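Quick one, T. Sequence first:
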Amino acid sequence: MDWFWWQYAVMAVLGVAAGVVNILAGGGSNLVLPVLMLFGIPPDVANGSNRIGILLQVFTGIHGFRRVGRLPTQDLPAILLPVLAGGVCGALLASVLPNSLLKPLLLGTMLIMAAVMLFKPAILLPDTIAAPFTVAQKPQAIFWLWVAGVYGGFVQGGVGFVLMMILGGLLRYDLLSTNALKLICTLVFTTVALAVFIWQGKVWWFLGLILAAGYVVGAVIGVHFAVKLSPKIMRWVVFVMTLVAASAALIF
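Structure tokens:
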């Protein structure tokens, strides 16, 4: 597909913005995917190509959190196994079902998260100094982590909000730990989904790598702010980002 140079430039800049959004909250893909489709990219190719940037971004973000010692690892296997199982299911669904089926669910999830962030922030982003729950202590988390994996494997956009609800609201990780764990979960189901899209030939590599460069820069910026902002400020940042992502999905 032939593009003008300025379209690539727009996507690179948008990739940076989406990278920051994804590190601080989630929903960056909902800023990127509508513009890709506006520029004439088929939804499945847009979805697949975007995964390249997501994958490289989460590697960058995980490294950043690990470098500053803010990456919790004590319950990782129990968290990641249901996410992996769900990611496989979601990626397989993405190979046979149209993305449009999940758009109402996506928009509804973002709007619900925006309302929770505004009216009941402690449900999603607790200010707590107590140790978080393990998955063994909250076995219902297994199902919800699987659901998050399915959702992320299928469509990606907005899954950060679902993971934050599970990791922060149910397991009671603090916001910074929630963001770090969210990236590891995203790495798991994004790897599976990207493999499926590559297998189906639905990845535009040149565009995906341009997006990836923007995502990586955005991840570095996002981690820098994430480790410096107070939980109260972070709640407002996440809320604003949620509204932006929901608005983008509504308009497009």
